[in-house]
Structures are given as C-alpha cells and as structure tokens.
Amino acid sequence: MKLQKLIASTGYCSRRKAEKLILNGKNVYVNNKLATVGMRVDEGDEVCIDNVLINTKQKKVYIKLNKPVGYTSTSAKFDSEKNVYELLPEKVREDKSLHIVGRLDKNSCGLILFTNDGAMTQILTHPSFEHEKKYLVTLKGKHIRDVTSITNKFTQGMRLKEIGNVKAKQIRYLGKSRFEVILTEGKKRQIRNMFAEINEEVIFLQRISIGSLVLGDLEETQWKYLTPSEVNKLKEG
Fold first, then answer.
1. I need a labelling partner for 53 at 20 to 30 A (CA). Which of 10, 92, 150, 188 fits?
2. Closest CA relative to residue 95, chosen from 121, 65, 117, 77
3. 146 is catalytic
4. In terms of pTM, does the model score above 0.90?
C-alpha cells in the first residue's frame, strides 16, 4: 500500500497530514531511508516519524456494540454529551486508532462496529462495494399508510436538499407503522430525512446488521469482540 495510507491506518494521523509530513523531506523514514510521497510499503516495513518508530504491525481489533439512544457516535468529547466510546473499557479506548464504521445519530440505536482496520472500513462504508446495512424503523401514528407509495419512493430514489440523491435497496412493511429498510450507502440521517421528505416522522430507528455482521441478542450498552468467523465473513463480503 502507499506509505501515507499505512501511516493513517496506524492512527498516527490522517492520510492528508501524512502526505504533508512526507513532503517535508526530513521527518519520515522507511527502513532507514528517506521516504517519498507515493512510495509503496508493506505492513512489516519499519516506519519512523521524527525518530519515533510507528507500529505498522498493529494488532487488528474488531468490536461490536449495541448503541442506546442518547449517545453520540464520535470520538470528539463534549461535556453535555454521552459518547459511545464511554461504553468501552478504558484499556480498549487507549487505542487511538479505533474508529467507528458507519455512525448512528444520537436518537438512533443498534449495531455499531469499532475497528482499527482501515481497509475493512473502506470496504464496508464505500457505496461502490454495496454492503448492506439493515434497519428497523417505526413511524409516528397508527393510521393506515399508502405502503405501496412509500416503498416505491424509497426504492426508486429521491433527491434531498442537503444530501443529494438517495435511495434504499429494499424496504418492507412489517405492520403497525413499522418498516425494515436496507441501504447500501449511509448518508447523514438518510432514513429519517427520506421519511421526512414524504411527511412521515421516524420515532424509532435501530440498525440490526452491517454486511454479514448482526446485532443478535447483544443487550443495549453491551459490547464484545468479533469472532474470527465473523471477521472472515465481513472481509469476504
């Protein structure tokens, strides 16, 4: 992989900042040789920045968590906000390269995936890979809706003012104002905004799967490491 991508995957800094460090021409060395932008490296290569060895053989971590409503999905800390990272043990949070794959807004709940595997994150979040993310949605009110109109608008797609063109891969009515929605993209508050566009209000939204990874019987606020089988299935797509 390119050197700047490898540096970013360790959590040392962003890819853009890594490029700037390399362009400096004096801070970054690979196997004791001065680095250049775009040079290709392997995970086993020895990378030093400002005479500090960067851990390029970092152990990959994969954690799933059941996010409750009221928690933000960000590593940023605000005094008035509860954060999903707070639900992980301090020892786990010490890994500064641990990031969230596919955020959920504060008022939504369900499956969150944490990892320090940048390659997997790219595969699971980039729309071109079309990995499915499944959600359970409840709408406000109990009146009978024009289900066919709703499902058609979701699967045919719509244009939203702030986030552009969006669509659902699949939507299924479950009865009692409840829907199952499958996306292969994840734009900001996409499901809530799509329902709002057709004058429907979401009062409950839960993600129950990301690719092959399922929430299962994991209770709210609880987390666990993925099994090797779960990791392999995610990588296989």
1. 92
2. 117
3. no
4. no
Query: In terms of residue numbers, what domain contains 176?
Result: 132-210
Length of the chain: 237
Dihedrals φ, ψ of 96, to 5°? -70, -10
- Among 50, 79, 105, 217, the one annotated catalytic: 105
Exposure pattern of 132-168 as b/e (b: 16+ CB <10 Å)? ebbbbbebeeeeeeeeeebbebbeeeeebeeeeebbb
**Crossing angle (nearest 10°) for helices 228-236 and 118-125:** 50
The CATH number of whichever domain residue 226 belongs to comes to 3.30.70.580
- Count of structural domains within the chain: 3
CA distance 146 to 157: 17
Q: Is there a single domain that holds both residue 225 and residue 111? A: yes
> What pLDDT, in 10s, does the model give residues 135-161?
999 999 877 779 999 999 999 999 998
Output the domain CATH number for residue 28.
Answer: 3.10.290.10
